[in-house]
Design goal:
Two copies of one chain form a homodimer. The first copy, chain A, has five helices and eleven strands, in the order βαββββαββααββββα. The two termini of chain A are 18 Å apart. In chain A, a hairpin with a 7-residue loop joins strand 6 and strand 7. The first copy, chain A, has a single domain, classed as Electron Transport, Fmn-binding Protein, Chain A (Pnp Oxidase, Chain A). By secondary structure, the first copy, chain A, is α+β, with helices and mostly antiparallel strands. Chains A and B meet through strand 2, strand 3, strand 6, strand 7 and helix 3 of A and strand 2, strand 3, strand 6, strand 7 and helix 3 of B.
């Protein structure tokens, strides 16, 4: 597990946590990541779905995607996931903050060309977003596989950063009469909405009815 | 409002929406953004708080922050915000997707050195996260202002991308018996948690008790 100088959390080092387990848990809980890459001297940050399998992070999309074309060439990239946990209501503006868990992965991607690895990555991408869905959908055709690019990035240079707990105010500020505390925030799922074109005879499957954000696995 | 070739949504162009109002609404609703920049040839993507004021996007942080030091030099940057709205449960793996609203802003930042502009940006950053808070906290001291860097980026080259609505399956797949529809997801706030060090005599203010994600303004 690389904790290189590039991924060492420089400021507020108490917020840096580097264990592989912490990093994996954050990557696994997040529904989306933000991918950074450079094209023509301009950095781009694009949201997309990811899944972690062992020490590899997989992304996918259309073969026509600029992001995937760029990443496939093996240029330096950055994949960041962020889970918001709360708003830190400190007594001072200066110590007002957010509780969050984030992971930054640096590296170069490779295009996944092995048919088995590519199929497995797509299966796990679907299962990452909705556990239980892969065996209850129409799986990809050869044409669809050909229209899809999958890239993988080794999670070899990565760091996690976490802020948790109540505000940390200046000692003198605790005597002030402003309210202070946390407002928890989290991604929540709502009531499933059947496709208007769905026959009423098709029941909501358990994995949809019982779906909860934050219970994603790898 | 610039819709340059760099920010034109190339793939799935029906998902591209370019109006300034759509872009502003997405920037204003998002609690955090992801900032992309390059340092030493490596792209980095860092989550942070932002606020939009007119056609300017403001970011802030410690004067020691690598991100802000880099951005202050005026290098090319990218600020992306993403709001997740739902999981699109299509009949096929290929059309499985997410509903979301995202904005990509390209440009170069400048350090905000004017004292009034800097103070206003910090005030609006606090108010963006918790409307009503600025007048009910301990405002920044001169030392705190000096320890804080604020940068601004003009929202001149920006695009929004939105997916909404039910799955769009292949015509033949509508006859399949798999469930299809949407699982809505959104960021929700929970019950405020007073700081353990808060005297019980200080009541929860209305702007905290009635706090709801997604009601942020600029």
């Amino acid at each position: 597990m690389g904790q290189s100088s590039r991924t060492t959390v420089r400021r507020l080092p108490e917020r840096g946590v580097y264990g592989r387990e912490s990093i994996n848990a954050i990557l696994d809980e997040a529904l989306i990541c933000h991918v950074g890459f450079v094209d023509g001297g301009q950095p781009f940050v694009i949201p997309t779905i990811h899944v972690r399998l062992g020490d590899q992070l997989y992304l996918h999309g259309s073969r026509a995607s600029r992001m995937l074309k760029c990443l496939s060439t093996g240029i330096p990239a950055c994949v960041t996931v962020t889970l918001l946990d709360g708003i830190v209501v400190a007594r001072s503006a200066f110590h007002s903050s957010m509780n969050y868990r984030s992971v930054v992965v640096l590296g170069a991607a490779r295009e996944v060309t092995d048919a088995t690895e590519k199929w497995t990555a797509l299966e796990r991408l679907v299962e990452h977003v909705i556990p239980g869905r892969w065996s209850d959908l129409r799986q990809p055709t050869e044409n669809e596989m050909n229209a899809t690019t999958v890239v993988a990035m080794a999670i070899s240079e990565a760091s996690a950063k976490v802020r948790a707990g109540p505000p940390k105010d200046d000692e003198d500020d605790y005597a002030l009469s402003f309210w202070a505390g946390l407002i928890p925030v989290s991604l929540k799922s709502g009531q499933p909405q059947p496709d208007p074109k769905l026959p009423a005879t098709i029941p909501v499957p358990n994995y949809v009815r019982e779906y909860r954000c934050g219970q994603q696995g790898p």
